[in-house]
Give the backbone structure.
Amino acid sequence: MDYSEKLKNLPTQFFANLVGKVNKAIEDGRDVINLGQGNPDQPTPKHIVQALQKAVEDPDTHKYSPFRGLLELKEAVCDFYKKEYDVDVDPAHEVAILFGTKAGLIELPMCLLNPGDLMLLPDPGYPDYLSGVVLAGVEYDLFPLKAENHFLPDYNAISSDVLDSAKLLYLNYPNNPTGAVANLGFFNQTVKLAKKHEITVMHDFAYGAIGFDGKKPVSFLQVDGAKDIGVEMYTLSKTYNMAGWRVGFAVGNPTIIEAINLIQDHLYVSLFPAVQKAAIAALSGDQTCVKELVARYESRRNAFVDACKQIGWDVTAPKGSFFAWLPVPDGFTSQSFTDYLLDAADVAVAPGNGFGKYGEGFIRVGLLMDEARLVEAVQRIGNLGVFKNK
Ligand SMILES: Cc1ncc(COP(=O)(O)O)c(C=O)c1O
């Protein structure tokens, strides 16, 4: 039996390769500090777990969900966007419930594009965007995110031919992997560009809750006209440490939302209703847990960046997300430094080139361990002596 061309063309799962290597080292009995992944380390807040427990006792949640999810959850999403971003969203037409945003990101090209159509993706960027490209049989162009532009795209550097043929643009701020954030000016510029060239925009707001130094990340929907041309995808995975629960949503343009709902009518019968009830508890409950989580990540970031500076590593503190994006020392590539750290220091990181060509020269570290362990990782790296000549 053979697989379809589509399946054969799927990109190799970058994270799967990484996890295999690290697991092998752990199986060999080594004390690996694994900073390579993006899996939140803290538990889901208690009130959300309790809401699930209560919901699961109710036999009504054992039935099929309405195909497009519980209206009550969509209303909670709208209240959340109003409260957090002062954005008005219509629960009936402007919200689609997702099995985590990963599902939405992958479905969207299939919903909006035809084989051969062009979409634009960030480089470096979240590798799963490419899975959606392959499954939809579309073409893609990458635009670089460079340090000198604060890891925002330079739209002037994209040719007008490319902009005219592109149908869909993906953005992600706070950004995985660079930790960069966007501002409203940039999103305004994006809406103008999208209207001029008739491009649909998907803003991946996975790290929307995680901004540092007192600055809350802005929503794409906060700018005028955003809803005319795009959607934003938001996940509960990071904000409430619910990565395993698989719950997220898309909000914005009603035609795009309808397209997502339509494809999902054919793929699923929405999420387990008890999970939807727990998501309502998360979005409409007390948000102190989110503030505490962001403070925790910020203090980890500070401890990590201070430790890097002490060993002579010239790093920039991320402004959002739970990732640090660090330059590799002279004489190394992303991959060779990653391999060296695992072999010589038992520290696992993600090589920047796994996120795209423009990720070369960087590694990504997840701030998903307590401060002592993060500092220990940096000290182990310091002991290798590679930064002495910098
Ligand atoms: C940038 C980005 N987008 C989307 C996702 C997917 O999140 P989920 O499918 O858990 O909602 C992730 C997860 O790591 C991510 O880093």
Observations:
- The chain has a mean pLDDT of 96.
- The two ends are 55 Å apart (CA to CA).
- The CA atoms of residues 177 and 319 lie 12 Å apart.
- The chain is about 45% helix and 15% strand.
